[in-house]
Structures are given as C-alpha cells and as structure tokens.
UniProtKB/TrEMBL annotation:
Protein name: HYR domain-containing protein
Organism: Leptospira perdikensis
Superkingdom, natural source: Bacteria
Listed Low complexity bias regions: 342-359
UniProt xrefs under InterPro entries: Ig-like_OmpL47-like (IPR058094)
Amino acid sequence: MQAHKYLLAILTISFAGQITAQVAAPKATTSTKDQAVKKTESTSTQAKDGVDKVETTVKDILGDKKDSGASTSNASALFITSKTTFSLDAKDESSTIDFIEWKPKNGEYRKYTQPIRISEEGLTEVYYRSVDKVGNAETPKILVLHVDNTAPRVSLVPQEQFFVLDGVPFASKNNTYTLVAEDQQTGVEKVQFSINQEAAKNYADPIKLENGGANVVKYSATDKSGNSSPESSIIITVDDVKPTIEIVPSFPLVDINGKNFQRKGNVFYVNATDKESGIKKVLVKVDEEEFKPYVEAIAIETQGDHVIKAMAVDNVGNQSDVVEVKLTVDLTPPTSTIQKSAEAPKTETPAPAATTPAK
C-alpha cells in the first residue's frame, strides 16, 4: 500500500506541474476578453482531462469496486455513516478562490454549496478540488470512505446448552458464555456487557456468572463507523445447589448386635429432590455393580452382607452426594429341637379348700 501511495503522489505532482506551466505561460496575443475566456475554458478542459487521468490512475491502483470489488484496504479508509457530513474550504493568496467542486466516485463534478453527505453504503471515494478566479485548477484530491449504516449483530452463546424450564434458562455455575459479534461493512470495534447492576465493560474473555440464582446479562456491539446494536439482555438462572437423595426401605431394618438385617420381602425405594432445575437422572448400584439408572424398587434376595448406593444428577449437571445403606440378608430359617426329660416332673398337691363352720 505504501508503494501505491508513493506512485499516486508522483503522478499527481507531475500532472499539477503541467497545469501550472500551462496557466503560468500564456501567449502574448491573449490580451482580449474573448481570448482570455477561451484560455480559461481551455485550461478547465485540460484540468478535467487531467482529473480523468488521475482517476484512471487511482482506479488502476485501488481497483474499481463496481467491476472487481473494493480493493482499497480498510486501514486506509475513513469509517463513517450517512449521518456524517464534510465541509470543504480552500484558500488562494493571489487571485483568490472562485469555487470549490467535488464528485462521488462514479458521479459528475458539482460546485460545493453545502456540507457533503454520502448515503450509499460501502467503500467509495470523494474527489474534490478548488479553482481560483483566473482559472487555476487544483490537482484533485481523493478521500477514501467506507460508509456503514448497519449496526453489528451480537449474540450470547453458552458453552453448555441451557436447560429451559417454564421458559427460564438454567445453567450450572461452571458454564461460560461467549459474545459473538459480526459486522458486514466496517467490522466490529468493540463489544460491551454488564452483569446485574454492574457498569458496562469491554468484552475480552468468556463470561462466567459467579452468583447463584437469577442473573441479568446485558450486551451490545459497536462497529468502526460508530453504529451500535440495540442492547440485548437475558436472565440466566444459575443452579449451584446439588440435589438431595435418600434410600428408604419398605420395612425398617432390624438392628441385631450392630448389624442391620432386612425383613423378608423388604424392598428399597430411592427418592431424589431438586428445587432448582429439577432431577435429570437417578443412579443406583448394588455391591460391586456399576451405577445404572434407577427404574424400580430394589429387592435383594441373596444371602449375606450387601451395600446399596445411590446418587442423583440435576438438569444442569450438579451431582448429589452418594448415599448408601448397608444391610444383611438372612435366608437361613432357624432350627428348633425337643428333648424328653430324664425324670418325671414333680407335681404339687393342691391344698384343701377352707371350710366355713356351721352356725
């Protein structure tokens, strides 16, 4: 790009020298009014031809947006909106300024009478020059503009998908949120966000919500022309409370010498509760088995000592503590015996009943 600028400067200076030479060396016979007018018209025509040459050179260097797409680097363009206006001014310390004129890239020159405003979006160029009262025309100057009237779009993307319950998005405390902004014209200048009542700040890294419960996140983006997107907001409920779980036997266990024996026909139910996002799944295991989904009451009918374990997971991934019940199953019935006594059991003679003397 630096080489292009250097070449353009050389061509412009060279052409300006030609105009100056032609204007500064009039013929000796150009003393009448008509000849002076013709000379001025000739100079203006030559200046216009020179402008066309400069435009051709600029087109060769920068490219023609209409035909081959904008090739001017955005870094060299001035980013504006259609609300932006430009004023032109000129000075001439000798014969003073007659008029200033300008033209859009694909338009015709017109005299400058009021602030300039460019309405069409995209990369474009404005040409401008001044002419003094004796017909000296300034070498055209070029201002490269990128007009952008469209605000960028921005969205919030969670790393882990929300769980939506009754229209409310729930998330875990470990979730993070990325703000994605795009602008098709001049590009995004900055993205800002705020959490709850905090002041807005520039977005740089994924957002993490530290507080449990409802959090209000507001965000917006601004492009390089100053267009700002409408402020968006979302209420995210952070569920940082783990579920609770319990194992309940259908009949109480019997404590015998410090060991819990189950009654015959006993089964075990698993109850899980979550007051935030709700229970997603309940997992159980018996002895050395792997955890598997709990679908029905657990019955153990194998002799010996056993351990039942259970855990629950809520809809945003919080896990409960693992609870367990230790029990002993006794399937061996008792045995009883009967023995004949060695001696006949002694019997006691009942005492005679008391009598009442006759009167």
